[in-house]
Amino acid sequence: MGVFLKTEILPDCHLGVWEITEDFDSLYSMVNLVAVEKAKLDSFKNISRKVEWLSVRALVKTMIGKDTRILYNSENKPFVRGNTHNISISHSNNLTAVLISKDKRVGIDLEFMSGKIGKVANKFINDKESITTDPEMEKFHLYLHWCAKEALYKILDKQDINFRDGLTIKPFSPDEQGYMSGCAVNGNGVEDFELEYLQHDNYALVWCVKE
C-alpha cells in the first residue's frame, strides 16, 4: 500500500505513515542504497526487519523527494546525514511512522494495541497521571500514555530520563484524535510539551514537535 498519511503539520515539519504491504524486492526497488547501507541491510537476519528498514527509507524519500541516508548515534537515535533534518522513527506491526523537520525537535511513537498493556501499567503510569475507568477506552488511554512517553523520551535524546516518574502526561479525556500535555524532568530541569495523537484502526500514534 505504501504511504497512507503524509501531511505538513507545521511549516517545514512533515508527518508520514507507511503501511507495509510490499515484499522485500518491491521495497528494495524503491530506494537507491549506497554500499554502507547495503551492508547494514544485509546484517539483519530477519526478513521482517529488512522490510521494516527499507520502509523507512521509502517513506522518507516520498516525504522529502530524494533518497536520504539515515544514521544512528551511540544512543541509537536516528539522524539524517549532514544533519540537514531532525528525524524520529517508529514501527509497529505493519506500520512505519516518521516525523521530520529541518529546524524543530521531533518525537513520534506508534503502537499496535494488543491486550497486554494493562498488566504492565504500573511500570509507566505514575501517581500524577489518570486513566479513564471506561472499559471501552481504558486500553487506548494506556497506549496513548505509553506512546506519549516514548515520543518525549525520543525528543529528549533518551538522556537521563526516568520513564515512569520523570515523564508525566497531564490528565485528559481520550478521543479518536486530539491533544495532550506532558512534562519532563531530568538533569536539565523541567520542560513542558504539547503532543498530538490519533487512532488508526488498532494503532495509537502520538507525536510531539518543539523548537
Question: How would you explain this protein's 3D organization?
Answer:
The model has no long low-confidence stretch (mean pLDDT 92). The protein has two domains: 2-103, Ribosomal Protein L22, Chain A (Alpha-Beta Complex); 109-210, no CATH class. The radius of gyration is 17 Å and the shape is globular. Strands 7-11-10-9-8 form a five-stranded antiparallel sheet, covered by helices on one side. The longest helix has 18 residues, at 47-64. The chain is built from four helices and eleven strands. A hairpin with a 2-residue loop joins strand 5 (86-92) and strand 6. The protein has 211 residues and is α+β, with helices and mostly antiparallel strands. The two termini are 33 Å apart.
Summarize the structure.
With 211 residues, this protein is α+β, with helices and mostly antiparallel strands. It has helices at residues 24-28, 35-43, 47-64, 138-155, and strands at residues 2-10, 13-19, 70-72, 78-80, 86-92, 95-101, 105-112, 167-169, 177-186, 189-200, 203-210. The chain has 2 domains: 2-103, 4'-phosphopantetheinyl transferase domain (Ribosomal Protein L22, Chain A), CATH 3.90.470; 109-210, no CATH class.
